[in-house]
Amino acid sequence: MIDDNPEIENFQGFSVELPAEIAGNSEVVLAIGNNKIRQKLSRKLSVNFSRALIHTKAHISENIQIGDGSVVMAMAVIHPDVQIGNHSIINTGAIVEHDAVLGDFVHISPGAVVTGNAKIGEGTHIGAGATLIPGVKIGKWATIGAGAVIISDVPDYAVVVGNPGKIVKFNKTEDE
Q: What keywords sit in the KW lines (predicted)?
């Protein structure tokens, strides 16, 4: 465990090191929920990122691809032919159905359902309990609110809430 706060020496029984103490051969996973911060740190750190970490109580089909530094939590279900980018989080009890494609730095929150053939762009956050219908495309750095039901494509940077999902605003773009 690594943290830049020198006052934290222990976390849930694990010793905590400062970033300068990372050995060159250490494998690292960035356990940060904020997608943008996770992206910035991944680009800043000169470390080896671990292969995906998969909880022993997750159900993972054999024919999937999961990028480096990604994490799959307990009770998550990932079905065949799914592609998950680098540094993504598939959280507790989330379901990712067949042929879905998730970009880098995506976060699928607890209990969210990504149905078959859905495409999710880089940096997008799917809120707890949200549902995406089959084949929907979600743009990059979008935010899907908790419990939202997404029945149509969502553009880049959109914030969508409700059932059916409606755009309520746009996140700042990378240039802002």
A: Acyltransferase, Repeat, Transferase
Q: Is the separation of the CB atoms in 60 and 79 below 8 Å? A: no
- Structural contact between residues 8 and 2, judged by C-beta atoms closer than 8 angstroms: no
98 flagged as catalytic: yes
pLDDT in tens, 95-139: 999 999 999 999 999 999 999 999 999 999 999 999 999 999 999
Active-site residue identified among 55, 98, 107, 125:
98
Q: Are 130 and 144 in contact (CB under 8 A)?
A: yes
Q: What Rg, from alpha-carbon coordinates, does the chain have?
A: 16
